[in-house]
Amino acid sequence: MQIQAEPLTQLTSRIFAASGCDDAEAHCIAHHLVDANLCGHDSHGVIRVGQYLGYVKANTLKPGQQITVTFENDCIAVVDGNLGFGQTIGEQAMKLLTQKATKQGLALMTLGNTGHVGRLGAWAERLAERDLISIHFVSSTGLGMLAMPFGGSDRRLSISVICMCVPVAGRDPILLDTTTTTTAEGKLQVARNKGVPVPKGFIVDKDGNPTTDANDFYDDGAILPFFGHKGHGFNILADMLCGALSGSGCTRPGTTTLVNTMTSIAINPSEFTNREAYIAELKRFSDWVTGSPPSQPDGRVLLPGQIELETRVERRQKGIPLDDNTWSQLTESGLSVGLDQSDFEQYN
Predict the structure, then answer these.
(1) Which of 38, 79, 164, 277 is 20 to 30 A removed from 320 (C-alpha atoms)?
(2) pLDDT tens for residues 205-252?
């Protein structure tokens, strides 16, 4: 099915409002999830609704939370998310980081003890709107321990994510948002819901054998690091830079709560160099790279983040595609918190 972003946001917002969130928080969560779908990151979209509701029911994710700043100075903030929704906690944290970086030229914030922060690129876009360069690292403290170390044979690593973004005045930001593994776990959920294979080399089954069946992953299989030892190294350093530095801890066994940790660095480029020359150089370099003759007749050279931006435009026009299983799960989530079947039938 295809559904437009606005009605999907309204429907998703109603589900979270019925689960205990106030209207503003429910809309914030829904907006972030649907925007992930718009960008083509269905792994971080409304497929997460049922998962979030399960965490709320288990009291491991709490509506209505505000950040607690446990330490700060002019350039640093250590923030506790109090097990709040990562979308609303992230908004609060980015506001604080923006204030510090805009005033001081450079700021670093660690965020611990928070719910799933969603699509990491959304936070980089928030800062880019304020003309701030940003670098982000995200990991979890254990429940997200789904990846196999390079050379290992079992799950020991989280799906650590690295994101970097450079705003360019008058143009779209240059945005890299990538897992340090071959895929995000949510993309395996999407593949399983659609009943399609995952690419070769992404996952192994519980015996360490390569497989393209997402069900094998959910039967104690594991995701592999991207590019072997290189992704392995990025994963470990990202986990250390957010898990250990935030005080919430790196990936470890025995945890039953999904807690995300994040370290974000924001840079005000105006404090470092002449603004006009800086912007001109960004544009010159971008044009130089994308001006390379395509290797394929119908190909083109893209900048990081360009596909997501184009997908967002396309899906706003044509609607967001949702497979039957994801729609069924969203319906079940809504019914579980008191919505009526008719609320969903109007979209079929």
Answers:
(1) 164
(2) 999 999 999 999 999 999 999 999 999 999 999 999 999 999 999 999
